[in-house]
Amino acid sequence: MQHSPHDLAAVAREAAQAPGDYLRAAFRDGHADGSYDSRDVKAVADREAQTRIREVIDSHYPEHAFDGEEATAETDSPYRWVVDPLDGTNNFAAGYPKFASAVAVLFNDEPVACAISEPLLEALYVAERDGGATYNGEPLEATAALPLEHGTVALVVGLSAVTDPALAETARRLEATLRADCKRVVTTWAPCVDWGLLARGSIEGLVGFHPDSYEYYAGSLLATESGLAVADTVAENGLYAAAPEPATTNRLCERLEGL
What is the CATH number of the domain that holds 135? Predict the structure, then answer.
């Protein structure tokens, strides 16, 4: 049975918002239980948030596959839910108020609907394939306010690139190259928050280098459906660039060449 993107988006929205009250309370409590190492954090809040998200999805589509950062469940369904229950775990654990929950649903490995919820700001992004995007229920259309040299670009580096010495070195060169062109390059460790800011026109561009799938599917669909100019070669070479204006995206892509 094939489902409409609109119905899938409604469930994605419900699921992304499900852990909101818990995450707000846990963050304000000021102590994040979990395991810590030099590169990442696995917080109890990740598991708790994912449990709440999965309960919503299973209540509507128990036959669908589930691919969460904390656990997976394979089925023979063409639908697969890809979930980052706490995008920005390091920020959450450090008391830095920049994190979100991201939910995307794929049909035959192509994203068809997604939702991103920022519980502290009560901000909600929803997108449907060929159906546009919304921010807190209002239609979302990306616009650019500043030229690139006066603007901010978000750099999203996936964990696979952080942990691979050769890719990490390339990521450092990429950041240095971008800094030569932009007023500010930010690496926030909360990629979906950055994708949301880009879709709203609050930042001028986003570059992804081997972005993690748990954020990438939701963020890239939001970017496309909000009208951003996108250059996406993640499957081939791990690079992604987006900006409100095609000329800015082209300029970002030029800087990626030869890295």
Answer: 3.30.540.10
Q: Give the pLDDT confidence of 159-200 residue by residue, as tens digits.
A: 999 999 999 999 999 999 999 989 999 998 999 999 999 999
pLDDT over threshold 90, residue 118: yes
Region label for 258, one of left (φ > 0), alpha (ψ between -120 and 50) or beta (otherwise): left
Q: Are residues 105 and 59 in the same domain?
A: yes
| 235-246: average pLDDT | 94
pTM surpassing 0.70?
Answer: yes
CB atoms within 10 A of CB 169: 12
Quick one: what percent of the chain has pLDDT higher than 90? 81
Range of 77's domain? 5-139
Number of domains into which the chain is organized: 2
CATH number reported for the structural domain that contains residue 186 in this entry: 3.40.190.80
